[in-house]
Design goal:
It is a single chain. This protein has one domain: Sodium/glucose cotransporter (Up-down Bundle), CATH 1.20.1730. 75% of the residues lie in helices and 1% in strands. Helix 3 runs antiparallel to helix 12, helix 4 packs across helix 7 and helix 7 runs antiparallel to helix 8. The chain is globular. The protein starts with a helix and ends in a 19-residue tail after the last helix.
Length: 479
Amino acid sequence: MELIIILAFILGISAIGFFAVRFERSKEHNIIEWALGGNRFGPVIIWFLLGGDVYTAYTLIAVPGLAYGQGVVAFFATSYAIMAYPLFFLTLPRLWNVSRRHGFITAGDYVEKVFDSRFLGVIVAILGIIAELPYIGLQIFGMKYMLSLAGIPVSEAIILSVFLVIGFTVVSGLRGPALTAFIKDFFVWAMVIFLVVYIPIHYFHGLGGMFKWFNAAYPKKSTLSVPQMWVFASLAFGSAGALFLYPHAITGALSSKSADAIRKNAVYLPLYNIMLLLITFLGFAALFVVPGLKNPNMALPMLLKKSFGPYMYSVFSGIIVLGSMVPASIMAIASANLFSKNIYQNLFKPGAGDSELRIVSKLSVALIILLALFLTLKINPKYIIYLQLLGGTLIIQLFPLIFLPLFTNRVSAVPAGVSTLGGVATVLGIIAVNGFKPAYHFIWIGLYGIAAEIAILLLLTFFFPSASGIDMKDYSDPA
């Protein structure tokens, strides 16, 4: 029965993903239709598409796990996601406007044009793919953690779901995750609301009782020390700057039918953070129900396993599987677009046509997801978490290449490129010295790279002419 329940979720969401090829369908068959849904998604679809990107299966596992292991430090996730949306409001509508006018599909396309540099487009693509690959792997890890207690063949279930994701992504393009995100988010919200009502009442007679117990039993975890405050603040601030530089977030935004639809989502998407807040509470409850876990990422699975019977646990497992399949699809599409448009077309075949680029993108989807699957099945979980940490610190170094030119053309290719490479070198140097730890001297390491970039930009910018690849009027809304 457990296997039947989980398969019902896997096969059901996959069927919808394959059907999505008919969703908002166009008579045109070009790469923009496959990669961005033809730029025709409205505010409601973008709401679920972007929400499905940010609030993933691994989020549902990792945030309670962080609360279990580190206490209230876990609230940084809620903080950074809130701070990210004003930046989203200011930047992504302008990027959408210029992308629509010039036919850009990726951030790499935009960077190539604004700086008249294919080399910088390749840099954006390489850093974007490096950041996305472990992110996809973490979705599979979220599935693996949950299914490990479900009493079913775990590897076989994961492999089945991964190949189905490849199938509906190749067939439907961005329409696949766009349509399946509706279903995924309905089940995820229903699960989270039920658990946050039921678990505290069942074990503590309410949320107040849970916090009273948590404060008394774990006083060090219920408050932030001064060093933790610095880590919390810098990690939240830096993560906010990085969130919408990820290729999948930019892909989701560029699929919108208007810049105004993006602005509306910047206003209302912070409501999703209620979910982050609520699932953090479940990590505190797990300290009471299943204390002493060596792997904090098993906090939510063990909490659910101990609190519910096998059938209900299978339902929750199926929902977590949905929460991994949908984000993995759009992350793979975003990475494939970067490879086909900004690496394959630039380095291997400059004259590649639209149909050839579509084929390369579809093949890239399969290769990227299969590589993430290999990493998940063969590599120690802590190493892929390290890689995801590295990806986050690297992706924010794209700030001067992607976000800065949206507001000024004063920065040209050489200062922007040198500053980005300087930021990347700074981050890698600190990691070499400090190891894969999120902070160095209590500051998130990605911010050291940003500091280096600012210094280089201030030093070099005035020695080079302004960038002239794009007129600043192209960033404004159509009249």
